């Protein structure tokens, strides 16, 4: 689940952790009372400061999605899936709208946007990594096709 | 062009200004040597601190997209469109990939993602504002359709 964290992304690492936990809860991969890795263990695995992981866990606790059992660890809250799913979908709809509007403002066509989404749906590239080469090739292809 | 700036958005205002200028250059709406509104005038219009606008203009100058003619104002660089278009497309492909991957991780289907993109393409809602009600309705509709 945390293997797609990319410390070089423009998305802060603590936000990446928060998002990945939320998506895993929303999709049912992380169930109620499932234990998250300790901040120390996860921080070592992804090579960041333990405070970064601790901040993400604190934020998730404030959102009511996880709870801390002192001395035992951090666990997924009961009933988190319903709330999380609705919240994630709303956030994703908002972000999709933002990017599609940006694409429109930059004069990209509906056809191009559809093509990029299709390529992204089909790829297994990590969320916060660089887009796969096949997608970046679409940028260039569209540009040269304009010259015709 | 700057009417879609939203000071309540999670995207910082100076980034919104930078993006809007870039999209306008990329799409050919802002041509070489076109004068941008002064930082003072734009700041008053969108009700922000003039330093916010000045920061955006400085960043755009560092990117080589605009130049300052002291005492005269800020103008679009010659040849900016080509560079800007390529840069914008790359950035938008990256962000589309990120959001589509997030949607996949949150267990949204290809059908839903397509539907949301289509609704966004069809809407005239401001880029950085809330997504239109019709799109938010898709979030709920999908949720209730799951219960069937």
Please tag this protein with its features.
homodimer, 148 residues, mainly alpha, 6 helices, elongated
Q: What value does the Rg of chain A take, in angstroms?
A: 18 Å
- Share in β-strands of chain A: 5-15%
| Largest interface (CB < 8 Å) | A-B, 52 and 52 residues
Residue share in helices of chain A? 55-70%
* Net shape of chain A: elongated
Total beta-strand segments of chain A:
2
User: Distance N terminus to C terminus of chain A?
Assistant: 44 Å
Strand order of the largest sheet of chain A: 1-2
Structural class determined from secondary elements of chain A: mainly alpha
Poorly predicted regions of chain A are 144-148
Number of H/I helices of chain A: 6
Largest sheet of chain A: 2 strands, antiparallel
The quaternary state of the protein chains shown equals: homodimer
The topology string of helices and strands of chain A comes to HHHEEHHH
What order do the helices and strands come in, and which of them pair?
The structure is a homodimer of 148-residue chains.
Chain A: H1 13-26, H2 39-46, H3 50-62, E1 66-69, E2 73-76, H4 80-105, H5 110-122, H6 133-147
Antiparallel strand pairs in A: 1-2
Helix pairs in contact in A: 1-3, 1-4, 2-3, 5-6
């Amino acid at each position: 689940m945390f293997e797609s964290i990319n410390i070089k992304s423009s998305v802060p690492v603590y936000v990446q952790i928060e998002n990945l936990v939320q998506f895993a809860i929303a999709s049912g991969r992380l169930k109620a009372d499932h234990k998250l890795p300790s901040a120390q263990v996860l921080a070592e695995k992804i090579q960041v400061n333990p405070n970064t992981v601790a901040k993400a866990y604190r934020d998730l606790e404030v959102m009511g999605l996880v709870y801390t059992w002192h001395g035992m660890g951090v666990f997924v809250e009961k009933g988190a899936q319903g709330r999380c799913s609705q919240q994630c979908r709303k956030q994703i709809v908002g972000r999709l709208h933002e990017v599609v509007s940006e694409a429109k403002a930059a004069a990209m066509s509906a056809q191009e946007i559809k093509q990029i989404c299709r390529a992204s749906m089909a790829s297994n590239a990590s969320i916060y990594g660089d887009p796969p080469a096949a997608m970046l090739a679409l940028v260039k292809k569209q540009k040269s096709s304009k010259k015709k």
